[in-house]
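Chapter summary example.
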Amino acid sequence: MAMEMKTKYYLTLSLKQPGGYSYFGEYYLGNDSKRANEIFSGLTGRSSAYEDQALNIDMIVMEGDVPKGVKTIGCTLDEFALNCKYIAKEIFRINNLELS
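The structure predicted for these 100 residues follows.
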């Protein structure tokens, strides 16, 4: 009997440096695809085509220990600050909905 792999969603944070981007944090969004995609869609920034952005936020879809998909936005420091506030508010809201 094969074990079912649970899909998990994360937002990872990275900063542009001379050698590329350096990871410095993450948010765990849970295992609900719809909620994770709604949160990512609510972020402010530009598509990954804008490689000149100092900060990136990636949504990574994990199936077990294997990354299965990535979406990326680049953002300015001001946009990043707004995004962190938005993400924290949404995670708080989701966790409180699950408790009620």
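To summarize the output: Residues 7-94 form one domain.
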